[in-house]
Amino acid sequence: MTDKTAITLTVNGREHAISVEPRRTLVDAIREDCGQTGTHIGCEHGICGACTVIVDGEPVRSCLMFAVQADGKKIRTVEGLANGDTLHPMQQAFMDHHGLQCGFCTPGFLMLSVGVIEREPDISDDDLLDVHSSNLCRCTGSQHLIKAVRAAAKEMRGK
């Protein structure tokens, strides 16, 4: 029997007091213990990016982080982007500019894009392509993603 550790995950502004085994990944805790299933599980090796969330302002592969490492940190998932029925500018731009198709990689791309634009709103297209290359997508071309992120960055800057 493995001992469990009591932690508090603050996901999208809501505290979740949970008990986890020390080796439980953050993605599993977010999905199974906190009920936020928008964060997808893909490769479970940090390669695909589907599980990207923002932890204390930085995009993180939640399959590579233990839940105990996130104790007391602020976690944002794709569910935390919208404000009620109002989509986040990045979500709206992904829809408007066809930045998604099958949708499996979309939560990771959204969180990665929001994280980078919040930190570096004037990132160059080349640097943005480099950042996006860390997430895998089989469906869309990067041109749609770049258009979407540019439109969202403009909207985010205006607010």
Q: Which key features would you list for this structure?
A:
single chain; 159 residues; alpha+beta; Ubiquitin-like (UB roll); DNA polymerase, domain 1; 5-stranded mixed beta sheet; 16% strand
| CATH fold-level topology of the largest domain | Ubiquitin-like (UB roll)
Strand content: 15-25%
First-last Cα distance? 51 Å
Widest sheet, order of strands: 2-1-5-3-4
Number of domains: 2
Q: Quick one: biggest sheet? A: 5 strands, mixed
How many DSSP-defined strands?
5
Contiguous low-pLDDT stretches (5 residues minimum) are none
Using only C-alpha atoms, the radius of gyration works out to: 16 Å
Discrete helix count: 5
Average pLDDT score: 93
Which of globular, elongated, flat, extended, rod-shaped describes the shape? globular
In percent, how helical is the residue content?
Answer: 25-40%
The helix/strand series, from N terminus to C terminus, equals EEHEEEHHHH
Give me the secondary-structure category. Answer: alpha+beta
CATH architecture of the largest domain: Roll
CATH superfamily of the largest domain: Beta-grasp domain
What's the CATH C level of the largest domain? Alpha Beta
